[in-house]
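Project outcomes to date are best conveyed with an example. Our students and postdoctoral researchers have been running inverse folding experiments weekly, and each run begins with a structure described purely in tokens. The record below, which covers 280 residues, was selected by the lab manager from last quarter's runs and is presented without edits.
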């Protein structure tokens, strides 16, 4: 039976500077053919888990994509998603959660994304890659799977890890797929809420320790977490606090081909154009 591309709903948890949503997710070319009622914007919720569970109940489609408001989806993103879904239809129709960047134990990573400050991570690949946990900037699941986010998980961290652990508990596979996007994020120091969520996930899923996530390893003795805290304290005492990286004004800029410069004069002209007018 030929694979039939499913209808899909996008869910966004929106907060803070409205331009983040407008410049990134709302500007995504892949949304131009999305039907009515297929974009759910959640605002004012106390945690990502509660916002996303509420959206699952609202969704009119089985397939749901959860994304950060600072993610930009190129025009071919849905086609890339459907290609992976067609493969999984044959190899693992009972899959649990998909994403665009994931990790297995011992730091084996898979994905294809442009992340601000890090550049392009990974490269295009064909087969979905089994992983342990996913980066939560994009998460994909089916309403019919019965998977739900832990409503007792506070704040806006580790919900990607939690939903992957829930899938594992139900013996459902999680996969990183090749569907390129731009995560126009801003890296900075880890807020106290991050560590609150760390302890919550550690307690809930202690039978699966150690748990490798895309940003930290959750372990019995908390070695990586302690190192991170001590490093932050040390840098603070030295007056060297990490400053958040600036986001891209136009995420589409990373998709444009880099011009080939055939002469030094052409290169100098391009540099002058980027520098702008000189002060007199």
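After processing, the design step wrote out the following sequence:
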């Amino acid at each position: 039976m030929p694979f039939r591309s499913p209808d899909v709903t996008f869910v966004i948890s929106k907060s803070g500077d409205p331009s983040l949503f407008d410049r990134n997710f709302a500007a995504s070319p892949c949304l131009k053919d999305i039907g009515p009622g297929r974009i759910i914007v959640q605002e004012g919720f106390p945690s990502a888990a509660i916002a996303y569970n509420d959206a699952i109940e609202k969704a009119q489609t089985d397939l749901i994509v959860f994304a950060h408001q600072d993610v930009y989806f190129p025009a071919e993103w849905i086609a890339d998603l459907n290609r992976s879904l067609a493969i999984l239809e044959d190899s693992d129709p009972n899959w649990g959660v998909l994403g665009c960047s994931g990790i297995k134990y011992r730091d084996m990573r898979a994905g294809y994304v442009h992340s601000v400050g890090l550049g392009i991570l990974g490269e295009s690949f064909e087969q979905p890659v089994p992983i342990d946990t996913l980066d939560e900037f994009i998460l994909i699941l089916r309403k019919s799977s019965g998977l739900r986010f832990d409503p007792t998980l506070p704040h806006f961290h580790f919900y990607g890890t939690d939903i992957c652990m829930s899938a594992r508990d139900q013996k459902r596979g999680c996969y990183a797929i090749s569907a390129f996007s731009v995560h126009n994020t801003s890296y900075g120091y880890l807020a106290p809420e991050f560590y609150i969520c760390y302890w919550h996930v550690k307690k809930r899923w202690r039978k699966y320790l150690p748990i490798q996530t895309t940003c930290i390893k959750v372990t019995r003795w908390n070695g990586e977490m302690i190192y991170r805290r001590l490093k932050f304290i040390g840098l603070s005492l030295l007056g060297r606090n990490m400053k958040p990286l600036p986001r891209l004004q136009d995420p589409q800029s990373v998709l444009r081909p880099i011009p080939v410069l055939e002469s030094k004069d052409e290169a100098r002209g391009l540099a002058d154009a980027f520098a702008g007018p000189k002060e007199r």
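Helices lie at 18-23, 48-58, 77-91, 159-169, 192-204, 223-237, 264-275. The first strand starts at residue 8 and ends at 13. The training component of this project remains on track.
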